[in-house]
Write a structure and sequence with these properties.
Strand content: 15-25%
Number of strands: 18
Number of helices: 20
Structural class: alpha/beta
Length: 639
């Protein structure tokens, strides 16, 4: 087990943990969440023995192999595949020992080492590393490229692949989906679900948390609270816990008021002095309950655009690319004030290229783009974080945009993005990635665009800021086009999808689950093409007809097997929908402080009992749903 017991830690004079305790069992998959600066990364540093607690105990099984993603990657000349293979340290040790034994012509030692090599899957290690890299978006032509040739974002992916290559007992991931696109995130989710060890993952992506973890460790007020279930379960459980806390707080305040009133009235009376002293001691011993408080530090909205021309942009038969390389062909789009478009597509297919094209950062190689009169584009891309002046404050960045606005107007506005008071005057240089992203978004919002082009806007943003951004985008009255690996943001802020693939940008009529299926089918087709056919090259007409007949039979058999599984999934989903509805209603009841009054004791008991029954039933049905879904995915992989 991994155990923290009464642990306290300060960093830079700031207390992060105070008597914090946590116990995790082998095989658990735990999402680590909390506001920026609450100690998530420091918790990882503690587990890696990079820092030490000021008080308390930290216990890890002594033989556990721990894997984590390095923060930096030097500009190495090593091929990318070899760099990833270095993640399996035992594999490399055996390889080095084999070289030594071969040089010494020690046959017995070589035989022993070859047996060890086979036992750890050494003969399939290169294929395993290649599969990891392919899942994270690397092409076959990139496997032998030196690490030094990759950009910073791609080196982050190499570090992630290297950590996944390690056959670890404990895997620690800090925001692993940053710098990944949606298809890589979907692949990573599948990999993490199948990971047999203990997983600790810091993440601000609620879909990833819902789809991967079975526990949530919430860091708040210098403590660590463990919740069972997914992120959605955590939200419901925390709401109920906060309601209980608020009710207990109000009850204690009434008790404190009563004791203080008695002490004030009778302290000076000799006949009551002893009783007054007794109550003073009772007050001193009382462990004070804090009032429940969950307000988000972020609150902002997009002002109504000054103008909303229709259409905002008209794109006709446009081609785009870089130099002689064409990325997109024959793109046709009409973007009006109500457009809310999410861009989907495999890594490297041209989503960012299309965004740059619409933003005017890239000129079309063919075709025509016509802008409406009064078009005001707000373009958010990761490179804009680098364009912030490190010596300027957040307030000065805003002042440069609008010299007529008063300092107080700008301070009120920037405070909604997490820069209150003197924080608005601090230079940008030491800001974290999340703080720089918030500032870049603030500058965008202030300019009142009527067309928003967002390329991965949630990178580095925590859950609170993502929620605030989602709410603001839902009320935004202009047009929105977004590329994001955050499926919650895509689902809640867009109305339609555009699939960018194979040089084209075309409407995608399905949802994000259909897109995942499309990616899987695309990968299966690529695997089939890469597998040589037995019994000839398949070029003759007879062989092609036979191949088609066999494929048709296989599809028919696959459909027969698939149908009952799909029907079972539908029934389970319908049942889950009803249960989730009842859970929502029950959570609403439990959040009512009146329920915790003495007169409603029986109602509270019944509600808590029903909640326990509901949680158990949901857990059972979700387990059955997962088994059915896995059976369906296994069947699909065999098709």
């Amino acid at each position: 087990m991994l155990t923290l017991r009464q642990l306290s830690l300060q960093r830079g004079g700031k207390p992060l943990f105070d008597n914090a305790s946590l116990t995790l069992h082998p095989g658990w998959k735990v999402g680590v969440i909390g506001a920026n600066g609450c100690g998530k990364s420091s918790l990882f540093a503690l587990l890696l023995d990079q820092i030490h607690p000021d008080a308390g105990d930290l216990e890890l099984p002594p033989r556990w192999v721990i894997a984590h993603v390095a923060q930096e990657t030097p500009a190495l000349p090593n091929p990318a595949l070899e760099f990833v293979l270095d993640g399996d340290e035992e594999l490399r040790q055996i390889e080095r020992a084999l070289q030594t034994a071969e040089a010494a012509h020690d046959g017995a030692r070589q035989a022993e080492l070859h047996a060890q090599f086979d036992a750890i899957g050494g003969y399939s290690a290169r294929a395993r590393a290649g599969k990891l890299m392919a899942g994270l978006g690397f092409g076959v032509d990139q496997l032998d490229r030196p690490v030094a040739e990759f950009s910073g974002g791609w080196r982050v992916r190499l570090n992630l692949a290297r950590a996944l290559m390690c056959r670890s007992d404990l895997l620690m991931l800090d925001e692993p989906t940053n710098h990944l696109d949606l298809d890589a995130v979907l692949w990573l989710e599948q990999w993490l679900r199948a990971y047999p060890g203990t997983l600790l993952m810091i993440s601000h992506d609620r879909d990833v948390l819902d789809n991967v973890v079975d526990h949530i460790a919430h860091l708040d007020q210098q403590r660590i609270t463990l919740y069972t279930g997914r992120y959605t379960d955590f939200e419901e459980q925390r709401a109920a816990r906060l309601a209980l806390q608020q009710a207990a707080y109000e009850k204690q305040q009434r008790e404190i008021t009563h004791l203080e009133s008695f002490i004030t009235r009778f302290r000076a009376k000799a006949t009551k002095a002893r009783q007054a002293q007794s109550r003073i001691k009772a007050l001193e011993r009382m462990e004070r309950i804090a009032a429940a408080h969950v307000d988000s530090p972020f609150e902002f909205s997009f002002a109504t655009p000054e103008r909303l021309p229709n259409p905002l942009l008209n794109v006709e038969k446009v081609a785009a690319g870089y130099g002689e390389r064409r990325v997109l062909e024959r793109v046709n789009l009409i973007i009006g004030p109500g457009t809310r478009l999410g861009l989907l597509g495999p890594n490297g297919a041209g989503k960012s290229t299309l965004i740059k094209l619409l933003a005017g950062a890239l000129k079309p190689q063919a075709g025509r783009i016509e802008a409406g009169q009064g078009l005001a584009i707000g373009y958010f891309a990761q490179h804009q974080l680098e364009q912030l002046r490190p010596d300027w404050s957040a307030l000065r960045h805003l002042q440069q945009l609008d010299e007529r606005a008063t300092d107080q107007q700008l301070r009120d506005f920037i405070g909604g993005f997490g820069f209150p008071g003197d924080r608005a005057l601090d230079p940008v240089a030491p800001f974290s990635g999340g703080e720089k992203a918030r500032l870049a978004l603030a500058l965008l919002v202030w300019q009142r665009p009527n067309l928003l082009l967002l390329d991965e806007p949630t990178n580095h943003l925590d859950l609170d800021m993502r929620h605030a951004l989602t709410l603001a985008l839902q009320d935004y009255q202009g047009a929105l086009i977004v590329v994001s690996h955050d499926r919650h943001l895509l689902r809640t802020t867009t109305d339609e999808f555009l699939l960018v693939a194979e040089g084209r940008a075309q409407p995608f009529t399905g949802d994000l689950d259909d897109y995942r299926d499309w990616l899987n089918e695309r990968q299966r087709a690529a695997n089939r093409e890469a597998t040589p056919r037995a019994g000839g090259n398949g070029n003759s007409a007879a062989e092609r007809r036979e191949q088609k007949r066999l494929e048709a039979e296989r599809r028919q058999q696959w459909a027969i097997k698939r149908k009952p599984l799909e029907q079972q999934l539908k029934k389970l989903e319908q049942r889950l929908e009803k249960l989730h509805g009842e859970q929502t209603r029950l959570s609403s009841q439990l959040s009512d402080p009146a329920l915790y009054e003495d007169a409603n004791k029986n109602r509270l008991k019944e509600a808590l009992l029903r909640k326990a029954q509901l949680d158990k039933e949901v857990e059972d049905i979700e387990g059955e749903w997962l088994e059915t879904q896995e059976a369906l995915e296994t069947l699909a992989s065999e098709e």
